[in-house]
Amino acid sequence: MTELLNVRNLTARHGQLPAVREVSLTIGRGEVLALVGANGAGKSTLLRAIAGVHPIGGGTVHFDGSDITRLPADRRVAAGIALVPEGRRLFPEMTVEENLRVARSRPGGWELEMVLEAFPMLRQALRRRASTLSGGEQQSTAIARALLTNPRLLLIDEVSLGLSPVATEAVYKSLDRLIRAGTTLVLVEQDLGRAMSVADRIVCLRDGRVALTAHAGAVTREEVTEAYFGLGKPTAVRS
Amino acid sequence: MTWANAIIQGVLLGGLYALFACGLSLMFGVMRIINLAHGDLAVLGAFVVWLIATQGHVSPFIATVACLPLMILIGYGLQRTLLSRSLRSGELTPLLTTFGLAIVVQNALLQVFSADVRGLGGLSGLLAVDGWRLGDQLAVPYLGVTILAVAVAVLGGLQLVLQRTAFGREMRATAQDPEAAALVGIPASQVYARATAIAVATAAIAGAFLAIHSTFDPSSGPTQLIFAFEAVVIGGLGSLWGTLAGGVTLGVAQTIGAVIDPQYSILAGHLVFLIVLAGPRGWLVFSRRPRAWQPSGR
């Protein structure tokens, strides 16, 4: 599996507090990586730093062999990185269709009709304002909007946070299609079981550091939970 | 009949105020910048139009169209140089920057053109002085109707651009959430520069009509800024057609005030502004983040 993203010793702060401390990780093409960890572990900050919307204190980010550490967020989108941020961040005064059409597309396969096939619930909601959508519809719109930029790497923060079980199921059903299509994905997911079932690899963050890296099939839920809460054995790195 | 005439003149005067307010509203809606140099940029536009009209011996209306590319460039350059840097330094810095810019523009105009009062009414032919007479006390001036029509065309055109084009969607998206816009590939700096270019161009149109409608000098800017600001606040921050309604309300208040007593003209406008400011809408002005700018004013 060839390398698509290489993060080296990345550091990011929230004010004076270090949120991400010298994190290094690589992501291969077509890989699905689940980023797990307790609240405040640095997952969202790491994704935002990779997407270019959180300032980096140190370290480097290479994407497809190019150094993008200093690139602004909009140019990272043009390079092929898309982030579905925590809270979805839709444009509330715009309709679903406008939210989708506003994305600046790179050349590639995703077009409006295709995302509507991947997220069928959006077809009926195209004329509705984003502020009136349910949680599942909002998350679907946010993922669809990111897909319309034709990313080579899709980062999704808190996939199922605030969603009903039915909406979560619908969103993951759509994600399955993306995974089968070979999209490179990084998911932040609080539901550990769900994360382990869809990901090729699990990375657990604790206090801004990598506490565990393991292939999903080579680690038990208990081991991830231990790394998650810092219980038992010291930092483990398995692959 | 006197009251009817006052209302008609007020509505027409409101067109001029709406033109002044259009760019101010756009910049505030998209970038959250209150451009204190807006009135002076309008007067700069008036001087450019005056130069083209007098030196090129062309109608002020042709000169207005001719000056637009220059004003668009000035607006674009202003954002890419001064304003983009000040935007990165907190909320107060752009306010101070545009205040400084206003002083620079005023003094530069004073240096180049002197303090003489000028006007373009004389070069505008019958349009500037004639009108339809609908009785002894009722007249509808051609120029007032022209200004109102241009204001509606500018605001309507802007609304169409914002609602129907990809550029408009990008501008609305950036106005609502610049970071989320960047995450779908929209560079905020480019959107801001285009918005400023449009705002300065509309200010120049307003300045040209001020020059045709009455007179101007290098110190005319701040007064126009106050009227524009009042129109924006009365019409509601973040609303395009509200800006037109605000301009018309201000104009009508001033002309009705003038009927009561000529010295109440400006005061009546300020009173309406203060009443709006004291009401629920005023709280929006003082809140940290008013509703994002929407072309339809929903």
UniProtKB/TrEMBL annotation, chain A:
Q: Which UniProt keywords apply?
A: Amino-acid transport, ATP-binding, Nucleotide-binding, Transport
Pfam families membership: ABC_tran
Q: Which GO terms describe its molecular function?
A: ATP binding; ATP hydrolysis activity; branched-chain amino acid transmembrane transporter activity
Assigned protein family: Belongs to the ABC transporter superfamily.
Which residues belong to any copy of the ABC transporter domain? 5-232
Has UniProt tagged this entry with the keyword ATP-binding? yes
- The protein here is known as ABC transporter ATP-binding protein
This protein's source sits in the domain of life called Bacteria
- GO BP field: L-amino acid transport
Coiled coil regions, renumbered to chain: none
From TrEMBL, chain B:
According to its UniProt record, where is this protein located?
A: Cell membrane
- Mark the transmembrane ranges: 6-26, 33-52, 58-78, 90-113, 139-162, 191-213, 225-252, 264-286
Q: Which GO terms describe its molecular function?
A: transmembrane transporter activity
Membrane topology of this protein:
Multi-pass membrane protein
The record ties this protein, via InterPro entries, to: ABC_transp_permease, BCAA_transport_permease
Q: Which GO terms describe its biological process?
A: amino acid transport
Which keywords does UniProt give here? Amino-acid transport, Cell membrane, Membrane, Transmembrane, Transmembrane helix, Transport
Q: What is its main location?
A: membrane
Q: According to its UniProt record, what is one Pfam family this protein matches?
A: BPD_transp_2
Is NAD given among the entry's keywords?
no
Q: Which family does it belong to?
A: Belongs to the binding-protein-dependent transport system permease family. LivHM subfamily.
- Its name, as the record gives it, is Branched-chain amino acid ABC transporter permease
Q: What is the originating organism of this protein?
A: Rhizocola hellebori
